[in-house]
Amino acid sequence: MTINWNEIETKWRNRWIESKDFETNPNEKPKKFITVAYPYPNSPQHIGHGRTYTLADVHARFYRMKGYNVLFPMGFHYTGTPVLGMARRIQAGEKEILDGLRNIYHVPEEDIKTFVEPIKIADYFHEEIKSGMIEMGYSIDWRREFTTIVPGYQKFIEWQITTLKEKGRIIQGSHPVGWCPDDQNPVSQHDTMGDVEPKIDDKNFLIKFKFGDFIFPVTTLRPETIFGITNLWANPNVTYKKVAVDSEKWIVSEECAKKISFFEKQVTVEGEIEGSEIIGKYATNHDGREIPILPADFVEPSMGTGLVMSVPAHAPKDYQALMDLKAKGHELASKIEPIPIIATEGYGTIPAKEICEKLGVSDQTDQKLEEATKELYLKEFTDGKLNEKCDKFNNEKVQFGRDKIRAWLQENNHLEKFPVLENAPVHCRCGAECVVKILNNQWFLNYGDEEWKELARTCLDEMNILPNNIKTEFKEVIDWLHERACARQQGLGTKLPWDKDWIVESLSDSVIYMAYYTLSRFVNDGTVQPENLTKEFFDYVLLEKGDASLAASTSKLSEEVINAMKKEFTYFYPVDSRHSGRDLVQNHLSFFILNHVAIFDKKLWPKEIVVNGSVMMDGAKMSKSMGNIIPLRAAIRDHGADPIRLAIISSAELLQDADFNMESVTGIQNKLESLLDECSRLKNEPISELQAEDKWILSKAQNLISQVTEAVEKMRLREGLHDILFSFESDLSWYNKRVQAKERKDVSGILYKINSARVAMLSPFAPHIAEEMWEKLGQTGLASKSQWPEYSKENVYATSIQSEELLKSTINDIANILKVTKITPQKIVIYVNSDEFKKTVYRKILEIMVGGQNNMGVVMKELIADPKTTDAKKMPEYIQKVIKDLHSESEEIKQMKLESAEFDEKEFLSAELSSIGKKEFEVEIQVYSEADDDIYDPKGKARHARPFKPAILIE
After folding, report:
1. 3-state SS string over 771-805?
2. Least buried of 32, 169, 268, 810, by fewest C-beta within 10 Å?
3. How far apart are CA 433 and CA 437, in angstroms?
4. Predicted TM-score of the model (pTM)
5. CA atoms of 691 and 697, how far apart (whole Å)
6. Predicted confidence (pLDDT) per residue in 273-293, tens digit
């Protein structure tokens, strides 16, 4: 059956829209509030974006079928500067961006012409993204849609930012920020090319050395090593600048002079000096010691100040550079010896020398120096102690002494902060390279506050984070977060209520917006006007501060309307599950936690965050330069939404990067076509008396329900989908083989029941085609509104599972023997175990192994310790084989065997082997038990039979 995907998908999307299936209001049901990061509309969504939204939609659809009242809303994030930079680049006629719009995104020329206005870009791609979401079948309540620049939302943001300020969470001061020198604005992830969050290292310091009337400033992460400096490094091929910096005169590289001009310093270039002129001269240390300046081509003028201090006892790179100079016979270098200042267990006097020799470092260009540096720095930081050369800091642990020495140097004007971009280069969307800027009198969210961090940690500890192993990343982010600019002077967004020259920064206005979803439909339908949304209104509705009469008097709304909105918020909040990509852990998702704990009572803190990896295309990262970006709507048009959804889901579990390829889409299309064809043929016929294979397949179907339910609850969607579509097929294949061998015609009712459950479980994953299958099955209503299949232990026939597994394994063993021997059988004889002691020992071993043990020595010890099985010590070969038998079986089968009653292997195989044996091998199969009087056993095979492992004779 060939499927017209677009036709089927349009049919069911229209049905959902007509019946308003996803429009959600408070009711008597338990609720689930599921949200996903709203998109920034500066380009259409591609297949990579589709992953996060598809996972969230599966989650929402699953919980609806589980009986929850699910709210799954969507908004659009206009705030910020990306569309401003994009508009400027379009206006300038930049070829790369225009080629992308025309050739990748296929934007009409008449629309491109309007893109010189930033709002036109956002509006165009807003509608493009929304259309794609609808076409993907996302079960969104579109009544609640908003953009972050509509007046109602801006009132909400004014309230949010004012509340944070009143609670002391917003401060004014001087702090380092990522900065676009062209836009003159702080930048965050959404403002940069490639969505890179500028990461500032504010643990980088500048130590000042005297050089005549000048100062040589040198950057370091390890101020404690000042006591071990032997020399400075300068690049003889660089022209350094003489600059006036406030009241001091510095010698630095040209690149450094530009950097420090953003540090709120007065910087004036007054002259130049060649690096070669500096070499061989001396600078003065903090304690008056003369420090020679040596040549080093490895010193990059763009790194730090263009000058480097050398601590060869503890810095492998410095040690190797010094050794290289000595090897060349450099006179000044030959007089220098390393000065050890840190004692670390496991290392001798000169740790840098030891580790370079251990790793076999050849010279200063050797890549192994990076490994040496990381290993030694970490070891010295965690375990090292400063020695007597460190003056009053003798015997201090490095991890504590570092800060004390930094503060001491700072007090004496020998040190100041020199924050750098840790992940440079980072480029603004306007094209400019970002820098670090010290902002004075700027407004900051005080994320560095330890009390605030502790609240966030409490929330994080109580949350469900999926997958759980990413929780440590959240903890690390909360630990290193510091003050963050929450306002800027350009871009789209909400004015800072107390200082209208500033606009609330784009990530600062997108942290608790989920609360606005609960109220937005009242604004969208005109029940409430934006001017009604006063501070007192929000305080009462969201924080239970004040009362309805106060909120009514300031908002000019009736108490009835206010209480209806409060009921909506109270019913749906808190957020039950928040979905987003892994790249947002370092900012948005962590801010989501921090801002919730700052504003809301504990009962309203978020319950769960689900994080997923990115999407690769045929093993490569998606990018315009690679030419492998496929717009989502184009993929839907060419291949259908459901195959795209399933290809995305089936390519990886949550945190893994999904590797998407079109070959998998074709395979999924074929699979779905086959299942639709099967559903079209099945009839809901009465089920007659169950035979052995019926009980088995119905039991396997119950196990499938249990496995898929657990997988979806834990967001292991790849596993759940694979179970529904592929793993279960092998069970159905065996069942069909069994019924065909018996020439049965009465199984349509059983297959109908099983496939109805499969289709229902497929519905959240592939909602359109599942509805079509549901209809073909003759089911009433919609699959998406049906009840999720419930696992019933009463409908699991444990004995049937173990007996059918015995039959399958016996058939497979016969087939394997025939394959190896290549004989045409004239006679096949099966011998089953009838030795009661063997059964008892088998059962005991089964109990031990279900408990997790499979070591033969331990198993034997437990067998001997039990009076019933103590004689097992006489049959080690048998025990070894039983352990091997059980080891090859799944935990599920072992558990089933343990739970089920014993059954007669001979009776079962005698009844069931004949039909399938005749069909498979074209010969009658005889079954004997070991104790039968009339046994045919010319080769003495019967004595080798074990429980669930018959002996086989083929003649």
Report:
1. HHHHHHCCCCCCHHHCCCCCCCHHHCCHHHHHHHH
2. 268
3. 13
4. 0.80
5. 10
6. 999 999 999 999 988 999 999
